[in-house]
Amino acid sequence: DIQMTQSPSSLSASVGDRVTITCRASQSISRYLNWYQQKPGKAPKLLIYAASSLQSGVPSRFSGSGSGTDFTLTISSLQPEDFATYYCQQSYSTLTWTFGQGTKVEIK
Amino acid sequence: QVQLQESGPGLVKPSETLSLTCTVSGYSISSGYYWGWIRQPPGKGLEWIGSIYHSGSTYYNPSLKSRVTISVDTSKNQFSLKLSSVTAADTAVYYCAKFLSVVDAFDIWGQGTMVTVSS
Fold it and tell me: What does the mean pLDDT of chain A come to?
């Protein structure tokens, strides 16, 4: 199985801060990496697919980069509605998908 | 637009079988796409359980494969999850979701349903 490891597990930031979350795969997954946002009591929401493509309707302050084993999700200017938990997910291993353990973004 | 809604018992006894259904609206399951189940134990991360193609082909998480069955009922536009021999470790919010192959991601999710395993 491909293991996905996110860092940090949690972070505190202020509105307007630039935030970066990292996801590392246990083997190369090319660019088959997705990012989801989950708010308390809600289902995850797809933010970015294929490492860097923004899902329709997602604000442009979100961006993704990386390939191979190392990926990042960046929020360029953190907004109040961005406080949530973020998960990466690999879709390289055909029909056997795995998620990272999540990164919780909290208010400083 | 496509919407998904989970339904089923919120409480299951240990050693019994958990059964959930996902009803899809706004799209005919028989037309295509993969459909999946993902779960999230309280305070923990997401775990993919398995997926089914509209044709009925199934794909399961190896760690759960011996206990999982996913099926589709195109006449009702539903797909279902059965997880046998449950324990407290299976207590979680269970989500159904649509997998969009063109982007290789779960693009639409149900709201989730909490299932507690307890006697």
Answer: 96
